Task: inverse folding
């Protein structure tokens, strides 16, 4: 292409492609020279157009002349840019070069040992080994923060490649997929419902006996130890066919969580106070729970048939705890009853009905079900079951329920008499079978449209819980990283003032210290696998164990759950040299056989305070005995001498006993200038020429020691006895 033709072409292109604004004072030849000046490989315009570049005056970018096609016109600079500048793709390090075929690990600039192991898909021991090889590090904990250099070396040593995690740039919050309560419905569709009444009070004040009379049954006689250890739900019909749902909560100190749960799902609280005992610890606690839940109280003063009963004293004690009874001008009803003989039980029922009428209790019987888990367990014939009270809607067979991270397709509904029922309206206590897993006591139950929706809710809750846990871990990681950086800075500041020899000595001392820490501790410990009949019982036992704070022996719960003791439980206990504690559950025959074979102890209990007592005894057995030294006698060396026994010379200490007596077979020590030079036993003890077993005060004797040491005048010889006293654990629960 000649210079003239090139100039004419470039001039036309400048107008069509808008690469340069045309001017009347600028000729085509000058324009061509301006565009091509400085962009030719060689001088002048004799070379092909493929060696030329042009400059876009709009975007100030250079384009090769070959990119401007002679066959295409009216191209803007944006079109040219799209043809010349292709979008860069992120390269996959596992598909080329040194990283070909290797695993990719998503990393951050600072990670813990545990999080790095999870990202790599390996065990923590692999990370420890890699750190020892690459960084000469001896000991790291799972939550130790690693800097990026160490992370990179570990991944490289593991024959992997790394990429950095992409941070989420979107500020839009993720849409919640959780199931929630329905909004309040129109008051016109509400229908009356029975009141839910919780009976609370101190242990052995007659709560279960009161329910026995109402139900015409004998629950208390069947309770282990005569105390209630479960939360029970019953529906009782009074003489006028008025239905009341009762919750019986344990009064024992260990079941505080059950009482709290009962107070928060109830409409009315019946506070049972014994007329011969007055206000006790769990009575005060029940008052506090009722006040926190904001529910009205009705006081039932029980055991008024006893000769020593003093109802007025009990009322005065209640007044001292803020309970304003009607007898003293307040609003709280008080009924004097005898649950054993049935005295005034009808009056108590009328009081409950009257209080319920004042409260105008109503509920929506239509729509999706809302309920509360009162108790849960594994039944041998039904599988995982949960005792619930319906708050809203009508529960029927086939309903899909979600409680926490558990789901259920209702297979069967059972009433308190273990009879199948077709449906459960609001305020009805019912046992539900069909759970995939046991729901936790106290969980809110919500009905959803389908199993797919139930799985979606559970997945969302699990993911949300994981994200919250990661956020908490991130805060801890950041805090520990700052602490480690501060410690590293201070260490470098100190090292800057030391010589290299002093630094090496310090490192050697630290490694020796780490080596000592790696040795397994001889500190006593008791590991427990706990299995209970219901979730509430396991919860109460764990709460009782949480009060243990002694450092004499470590108490750890390896695993806890509801249901029969299985082989897996025995194997876990055997691995950690622990025991299995079974509360109100049976032990499978195979687990019993395996426990006998492995020597694993299985403790079976039905009463919680006896369980705690046995745990105390087990802890006591794990404690090493304390050595107690008792001084029996003391003597002073007057004259040491040597005798010949065959060809061997034996050193003998001639002594006079100053205190107590010296006895052969006991421990002796020789003290010289207030320092012990020998500790052990004697081989012979003589008085004059006779072998004796003991020498008393003011008597002279001759001693020869097992190690044949030579004594000097003035040495003090002490005879003492070592006794081993068993230790006792310091654990006070308050019951």
Result:
């Amino acid at each position: 292409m000649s210079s003239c033709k090139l100039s004419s072409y470039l001039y036309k292109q400048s107008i069509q492609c808008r690469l340069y604004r045309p001017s009347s004072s600028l000729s085509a030849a000058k324009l061509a020279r301006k565009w091509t000046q400085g962009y030719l490989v060689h001088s002048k315009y004799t070379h092909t157009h493929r060696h030329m570049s042009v400059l876009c005056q709009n975007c100030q970018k250079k384009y090769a002349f070959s990119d401007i096609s002679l066959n295409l016109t009216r191209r803007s600079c944006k079109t040219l840019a799209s043809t010349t500048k292709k979008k860069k793709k992120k390269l996959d390090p596992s598909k080329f070069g040194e990283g070909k075929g290797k695993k990719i690990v998503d990393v951050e600039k600072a990670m813990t040992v545990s999080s790095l192991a999870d990202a790599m898909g390996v065990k923590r021991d692999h990370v420890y080994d890699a750190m020892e090889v690459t960084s000469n590090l001896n000991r790291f904990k799972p939550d130790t923060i690693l800097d990026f250099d160490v992370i990179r070396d570990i991944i490289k040593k593991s024959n992997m490649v790394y990429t950095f995690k992409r941070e989420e740039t979107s500020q839009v919050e993720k849409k919640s997929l959780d199931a929630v309560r329905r909004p309040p419905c129109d008051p016109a569709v509400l229908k009356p419902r029975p009141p839910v009444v919780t009976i609370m009070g101190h242990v052995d004040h007659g709560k279960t006996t009161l329910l026995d009379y109402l139900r015409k049954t004998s629950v208390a006689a069947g309770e282990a130890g005569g105390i209630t250890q479960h939360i029970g739900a019953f529906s009782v019909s009074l003489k006028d066919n008025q239905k009341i749902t009762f919750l019986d909560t344990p009064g024992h100190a260990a079941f505080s969580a059950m009482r709290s749960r009962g107070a928060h799902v109830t409409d009315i609280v019946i506070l049972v106070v014994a007329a011969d005992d007055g206000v006790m610890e769990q009575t005060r606690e029940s008052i506090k729970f009722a006040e926190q839940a904001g529910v009205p109280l009705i006081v039932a003063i029980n055991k008024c048939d006893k000769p020593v009963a003093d109802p007025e004293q009990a009322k005065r004690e209640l007044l001292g705890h803020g309970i304003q009874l009607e007898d003293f001008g307040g609003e709280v009803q008080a009924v004097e009853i005898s649950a054993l003989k049935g005295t005034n039980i009808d009056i108590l029922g009328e009081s409950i009905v009257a209080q319920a009428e004042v409260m105008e209790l109503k509920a929506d019987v239509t729509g999706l079900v809302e309920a509360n888990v009162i108790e849960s367990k594994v039944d041998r014939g039904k599988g995982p079951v949960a005792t619930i009270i319906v708050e809203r809607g009508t529960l029927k067979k086939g309903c899909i329920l979600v409680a926490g991270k558990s789901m259920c397709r209702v297979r069967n509904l059972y009433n308190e008499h273990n009879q199948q029922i077709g449906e459960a309206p609001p305020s009805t206590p019912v046992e539900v079978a069909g759970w995939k897993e046991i729901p936790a006591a106290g969980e809110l139950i919500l009905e959803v449209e389908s199993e797919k929706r139930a799985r979606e809710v559970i997945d969302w809750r699990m993911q949300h819980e994981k994200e919250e846990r990661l956020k908490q871990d991130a805060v801890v990681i950041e805090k520990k990283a700052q602490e480690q950086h501060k410690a590293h800075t201070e260490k470098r500041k100190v090292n800057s003032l030391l010589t290299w020899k002093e630094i090496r000595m310090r490192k050697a001392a630290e490694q020796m210290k780490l080596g000592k820490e790696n040795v397994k501790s001889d500190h006593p410990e008791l590991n427990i696998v706990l299995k209970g009949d219901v979730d509430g019982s396991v919860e109460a036992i764990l709460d009782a164990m949480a009060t243990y704070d002694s450092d004499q022996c470590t108490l750890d719960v390896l695993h806890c759950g509801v249901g029969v003791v299985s082989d897996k439980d025995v194997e876990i206990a055997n691995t950690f040299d622990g025991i299995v504690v079974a509360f109100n559950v049976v032990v499978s025959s195979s687990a019993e056989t395996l426990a006998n074979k492995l020597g694993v102890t299985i403790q079976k209990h039905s009463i919680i305070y006896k369980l705690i007592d046995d745990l105390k005894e087990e802890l006591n057995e794990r404690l090493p005995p304390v050595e107690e030294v008792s001084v029996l006698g003391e003597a002073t060396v007057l004259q040491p001498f040597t005798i010949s026994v065959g060809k061997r010379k034996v050193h003998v200490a001639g002594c006079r006993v100053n205190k107590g007596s010296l006895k052969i077979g006991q421990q002796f020590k020789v003290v010289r200038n207030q320092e012990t030079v020998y500790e052990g036993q004697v081989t012979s003890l003589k008085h004059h020429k006779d072998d004796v077993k003991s020498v008393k005060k003011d008597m002279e004797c001759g001693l020869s020691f097992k190690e044949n040491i030579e004594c000097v005048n003035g040495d003090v010889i002490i005879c003492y006895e070592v006794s081993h006293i068993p230790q006792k654990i310091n654990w006070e629960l308050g019951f």
Remarks:
- The chain has a mean pLDDT of 76.
- The domain at 525-622 is CATH 3.40.50.10050 (Rossmann fold).
- The chain has 17 helices and 36 strands.
- The first helix runs from residue 3 to 16.
